[in-house]
Amino acid sequence: MISFLRKNSFVLLLLAAFVLSDVLIGWWDPMSTSRRFYKNDFTKTLYHHDGLNHGPVFFGNSAVTGAYIEEKSDSKLIEMGLSYGKLTDLKGILEQKLFHVEGQLVVGIDVHTMLDILDTDPTYQWFKPWYQPYVYAYRDYFRDSGKEFVWQLYKGTVELNPSELLKYQPRWIDKELYFGHQPDDQLRSKWNEYDKRFGWVSQHEYKDNLAALDWIIAYCRANGLPLKVIWMPWNRGYPLPPYMAGLQEVVNRRLDAAGVPVLDLLTKYDPKLFHDLVHLSRQEGAPVFTKEVDAWLATSAKPSK
Fold first, then answer.
1. How far apart are CA 159 and CA 299, in angstroms?
2. Rounded CA gap, 131 and 101, in Å?
3. Which domain of life does the UniProt lineage start with (predicted)?
């Protein structure tokens, strides 16, 4: 053993240095704490709430981000709309205790929330295995910020401009909102794209998210957490995806069996309230949606006589 250690001392020291540096970088967690690095929508949620990791939540994908105006809502739910967010993501958050939902959990389900085949953001924290090096998990964003750092280093040393050494472009920290209205030709093109990608979907392509729904229902029951579900609005100027009737039926059957209140807004809103097919316009649609959700939550919170 001693002979082995001596022969491989350099490699072992190099490995130890890498492990130690990766642990220190993970403890620093620049993806969450430094504006030099990209932020995913989960980190943005925490950032905009001063790092608060508990409270009542309105979870969903970007349809929730676009539709629910947290600062104008009486319900005071934390808007946790995640880009391409799915129920499997919510399960990961709850399982890994990355956020402690308190008081109430509202889940927004739109035409994409349950699709297993829809890729999501690979940088979400619940996707990182415990054994995976931090630097490797976020390698693309280290590369992005590293290129900027090298360029600033060049400007500060070679060009003899010390003021450039520590400069950087803060990464965008806000979530994407949806203003205005896309023209009909863009909406038709997007509908054709959705139909090509997802029009053939059957229950097999959302079985993992159905299992996640069952897990979430059981989690809420076990933790005494009130759960409510909202079917998020779809632009009814265009046909619903073919799989939605079957999906809504099987989901509602599970929710009804569990006694989960449901607000169905799937085809309720006028197309003029939409930015595109799945996102409400921030000016016209989002205020209407926020007020309706507030009224529904206030009514459902009252005890029945």
1. 65
2. 27
3. Bacteria
Question: What does the alpha-carbon distance between residue 91 and residue 220 come to, in Å, rounded to a whole number?
Answer: 11
Report the alpha-carbon angle 265-266-269, nearest 5.
65
- CA separation for the pair 261, 8 (Å, rounded): 63
Where are any strands of DSSP class E within 118-266?
227-231, 262-264
* Angstrom distance (rounded) from CA 171 to CA 145: 10
What is the pTM assigned to this prediction? 0.89
Which amino acid type is present at position 55? G
> What is the domain partition of the chain in residue ranges?
1-28, 39-131+174-301
DSSP secondary-structure letter at 6? H
255 backbone dihedrals φ, ψ, rounded to 5°: -65, -40
Question: Do the beta carbons of residue 207 and residue 246 sit within 8 Å?
Answer: no
Phi and psi torsions of 117, nearest 5°: -80, -5
CATH code at 39-131+174-301:
3.40.50.1110
